[in-house]
Structures are given as C-alpha cells and as structure tokens.
Design a protein that fits this description.
Elements lengths: L3 H4 L6 E3 L5 E10 L6 E7 L4 H7 L6 H12 L4 H8 L3 H13 L10
Antiparallel strand pairs: 1-2, 2-3
Amino acid sequence: MMSQTNAQALPPRATLLDDGTVEYALSRPVTIDGLNESLTVLKFREPTAGDLIDAGATGASGAQGLALLASVTGNKSLLGEKLLRALPARDFLAAQKVVAYFFNDGLPTGQ
C-alpha cells in the first residue's frame, strides 16, 4: 500500500485506488472529430521495465513520454494515441505527474 505522503504527490483530480492504480479525471472530455470515442478518465497502472524499454525511456522526448503514457493507460492503439494527443496541455502535464508518481520510492520500510 502506498503511503499517504506518497499519495499526496498526485495532481488534483487524481485518485489512488486500492489496487495501486491511479485514476485521473480529465478537465474536459476529449473526443476526435467524426468518431464516437470519448475520453473522460485515464486509468494508470504501474509502469514495468518493458514499458520503459518499449518507450525508449532513456531520454525525455515528447514521443517517448507519449509512448509511455499510452502504454500505462492502455491507449496504445492509433485511436488511443490520437485521443492522448488531443488532451488539453494541463491534463497532459498532470498525466506526466501521475506517471512520475510511480517512480517515487515513498517512505523507507519500517517508517
């Protein structure tokens, strides 16, 4: 279980769930013109080593960040990428903070 201090590192509108995933409610729904798909919430799981390798996460380029975000939110399809690219900038930056949350070590054992 994540510590309360660690959970406080999440951005506003982000909720830590009992299973360790995080849900982030977007500031407004995101839709793609001509499609019936809409995105209102992103659900994040903890990144794996494979996610980092696949995203080429050795640097911090926008494409690498988008690839990692798509992977941990289950939006790896072309449609998913289009929806993520349509996020308001504030939601994209908050989503990056949610991903960063999973890299926080939290409190040492026994504290």
